[in-house]
């Protein structure tokens, strides 16, 4: 009876997952194989176009490049920040966590507009750079790959730090003391003990950051509109184009995005298991 009661309690969650996650994904996959304009039969034409037309090939490449680079840079900065916060502890850590929680929610369109106000053609820092003769600030490449990557890194760092701090808390002081007694330095501890212990969490965090970046749409669109080719922008324009809408082709692009994310998470989990942990 108790098991049946548990099953009844799970039913609403299964229904919600089915309606808002499983069914939409299945519908997207099926639609990606349908001909444009509601034709009869199945086709691979959409997938062939994605991997043969330069516009969509560049969208896949740009999404992979920016996502991987911003995730890696964000992870490195977050590692240093999380390590410093946990080593300091106390009130400093609490204040730092509060700031992280606030900053981690600052993304999307507001973040893009903030960067435009600061680094745009008439931005505050751009004008300041012109006045002071600082070429890097006066000609900051905001509306390029580097500018877009900077905005991605900005919202990756707080998220990565929040994910890593609990992992740093799991490192015991006794381990440091044992390494010190054996004549090891702080660098030795992190190379031999700290990083291997944290590796599953680092891999899991990287996977999360990669998925967060490759699916980001609002920030990129507000900053560059349709002038830069990444998968989320190319997917959106297939469903809300002013002239032509191609939902079947957009579904194929969405399936490619899903497959990239699934592949990334699968590889991360596999590597984490090989290193003796579970990516989280």
Proportion of strand residues: under 5%
Tertiary shape: globular
Mean of pLDDT? 85
Taking the alpha carbons of the first and last residues, their distance comes to 34 Å
How much helix is in the residues? over 70%
Largest sheet: none
Question: What does this protein structure show overall?
Answer:
The protein is mainly α and 280 residues long. The chain has 13 helices and no strands. Helix 1 (2-32) packs across helix 13 (247-274). The protein has helices at residues 2-32, 45-50, 54-88, 90-103, 109-119, 124-132, 135-138, 145-169, 173-181, 186-214, 218-224, 231-239, 247-274. The chain is globular and about 75 Å long. The longest helix has 35 residues, at 54-88.
Please provide a brief summary of the model:
The protein is mostly helical. It contains 13 helices and no strands. The mean pLDDT is 85.
Keywords:
280 residues, mainly alpha, 13 helices
């Amino acid at each position: 009876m108790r098991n049946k009661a548990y099953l009844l309690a799970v039913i609403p969650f299964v229904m919600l997952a089915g309606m808002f996650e499983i069914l939409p994904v299945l519908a997207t996959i099926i639609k990606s194989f349908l001909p444009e304009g509601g034709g009869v039969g199945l086709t691979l034409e959409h997938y062939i176009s994605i991997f043969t037309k330069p516009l969509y090939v560049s969208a896949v490449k740009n999404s992979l490049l920016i996502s991987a680079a911003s995730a890696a840079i964000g992870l490195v900065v977050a590692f240093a920040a999380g390590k410093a916060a946990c080593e300091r502890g106390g009130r400093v850590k609490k204040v730092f966590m509060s700031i992280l929680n606030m900053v981690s929610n600052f993304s999307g369109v507001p973040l893009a507009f903030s960067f435009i106000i600061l680094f745009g053609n008439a931005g505050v820092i751009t004008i300041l750079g012109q006045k002071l003769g600082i070429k890097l600030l006066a000609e900051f490449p905001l509306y390029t790959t580097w500018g877009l990557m900077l905005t991605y890194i900005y919202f990756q760092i707080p998220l990565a730090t929040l994910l890593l701090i609990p992992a740093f808390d799991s490192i015991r002081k006794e381990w440091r003391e044992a390494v010190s007694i054996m004549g090891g330095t702080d660098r030795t501890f992190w190379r031999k003990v700290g990083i291997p212990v944290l590796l599953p969490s680092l891999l899991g965090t990287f996977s999360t950051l990669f998925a967060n970046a490759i699916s980001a749409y609002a920030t990129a669109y507000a900053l560059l509109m349709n002038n830069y080719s990444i998968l989320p922008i190319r997917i959106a324009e297939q469903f809300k184009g002013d002239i032509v809408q191609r939902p079947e082709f957009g579904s194929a692009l969405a399936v490619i995005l899903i497959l990239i994310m699934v592949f990334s998470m699968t590889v991360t989990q596999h590597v984490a298991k090989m290193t003796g942990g579970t990516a989280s």
